[in-house]
Every structure is written in C-alpha cells, then in structure tokens.
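RECORD CONTENTS
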Amino acid sequence: MNQRSFGLGLLFLMMLVWSGCDSGEYGKETKPEPKAESTPMSTAKAPGMTEPAQVEGALMATVGAEGAKENDEGVNHFQQEHWDVAKEHFMKAIAANADLAEAHYNLALALDKLGNHGDATKHFKKALALAPADPKIAGSQILQAHVGG
C-alpha cells in the first residue's frame, strides 16, 4: 500500500506541474497588450454639459501701444508665477500709459495673487472703465468677483 500511495502521489505531482506549464511558450518574451486610450476626467465632457471654465491669465497689450513692452514683460513673469516681478512691470506699464486697460487688469490679477484684494479691486474697476466692451476684461470671472458684477 505504501508503494501504491507513493506512485499516486508522484502521478498527482506530475499532473500539477504539467498543468502549470503553458504550451511551449515558456521563456519567450511577451509584450503587454496596448492600453486603451482614455480621456482624463478633467477634460471629459458629459452630453449637454458646457465647457469647463478656463483659468484666467494676464492679457497682452495692443502692439505698439505706449507701455505695451513693460506690460508684455509682466505677462511673461505672470505666466511663470513671479507675481512680484510681474506686478512691477505692470506698474511701469501704467506709469507709461495710465489708459492701458490690459496693464490695469494684469496688475489687478497680480495683486490678487499676492493677496492684496483691495488694490486688485481698484485696478479691476479701472480696467473695466477703460475697456467696457473688451470681452476678456468685462467677461472675466475674477473681475466680476472683485467688483460685484
């Protein structure tokens, strides 16, 4: 009986080993299946939904306008999140051209980022007074939040 149990055990062990092997593919390199493309959740749009709100940024000045060079340099720093440096450039643009709506708007954005909401509101109001028909200024959500529009 002991010999028979040993033989059955050996047979059972061999069956386990064989069932674990695949059909001669052992050792071959297998490449993973390509993953399906998916749309990130932040940009996915459900049917009937409107576009997500875009982050508002600093505005370039009209080419050739007095103060445009300083304003546009400020925009460059604003995009790099150098709020203090951007603020200084926007202030220089306003010193060169007090009627440059984009510079007032941009200065307000920089002041907002720096936590100076009182002065930001003042410059948002000035930008809106100078360019009430400019959709980028008049339609700005952050401007509306400051001026109560």
In short: The longest helix spans residues 2-20. The chain has seven helices and no strands. The two ends are 95 Å apart (CA to CA).
